[in-house]
């Protein structure tokens, strides 16, 4: 029996995330992200060199600080369900906007691949992207693809494989905040670490608490309670 | 530099480019605006106003986003195109 890894797809709306999902899994998933559309997670499988990967298509969001149900679903999946790899799909023609979400995810979890999609469109517009420099600066693999034309897939799949199997270790660039905030993080982090142990990044939880993220606090309370109850 | 160069996004006219300097908004709405690209230093274009002047559509980091007066009147910036 081959091992199964879970790969979560995150990204802004309209970055071709679902196109990539469909291209990789062969599923015809309904795309669109309008109000009223049920927030549910599409799942599909893909096999690469004898290993089966389960792909989970998270809702497209600009942020992951749970201002909406979509963002909460995406955040909870990444933080609490802990996929083996989180693939952040970004739009090559609008990197500045898209990297906001990517940086937020880099603070939450370690095994991240930044997948720059719509490279065909970017090239048409004369945009060139130095993915090696981005990889160095961000500390995680950055891969250029076009989901529409299915280019860049071999590199993407190999990187997913190496990351899932632990042959590649990410060291996401850490955002340093101003002195006040860093001091507060330093005093909160050990207390948080006692509670969440190594299940969740204690630095990230400390930051969210400083930001007054009550939705995360509620989520933590209910999840920690369940854990205690079942122990 | 004239002081009148500083206006709120709400006071912008169609075609104006305004570089955001500060935002008097806190909490979840501030976070939301930051996520959408309304960050200090960003240049925002006033794309068009609704018939009644509210909401106003802005172009920010290659996307068009409409804000109500409630928010746009609390975002200050420097007018870059008018003299």
UniProtKB/TrEMBL annotation, chain B:
<keyword id="KW-0408">Iron</keyword>
<dbReference type="Pfam" id="PF04023">
    <property type="entry name" value="FeoA"/>
</dbReference>
<dbReference type="GO" id="GO:0046914">
    <property type="term" value="F:transition metal ion binding"/>
</dbReference>
<dbReference type="InterPro" id="IPR008988">
    <property type="entry name" value="Transcriptional_repressor_C"/>
</dbReference>
<dbReference type="InterPro" id="IPR007167">
    <property type="entry name" value="Fe-transptr_FeoA-like"/>
</dbReference>
<dbReference type="InterPro" id="IPR038157">
    <property type="entry name" value="FeoA_core_dom"/>
</dbReference>
<protein>
    <submittedName>
        <fullName>Iron transporter FeoA</fullName>
    </submittedName>
</protein>
<feature type="domain" description="Ferrous iron transporter FeoA-like">
    <location>
        <begin position="7"/>
        <end position="79"/>
    </location>
</feature>
<dbReference type="InterPro" id="IPR052713">
    <property type="entry name" value="FeoA"/>
</dbReference>
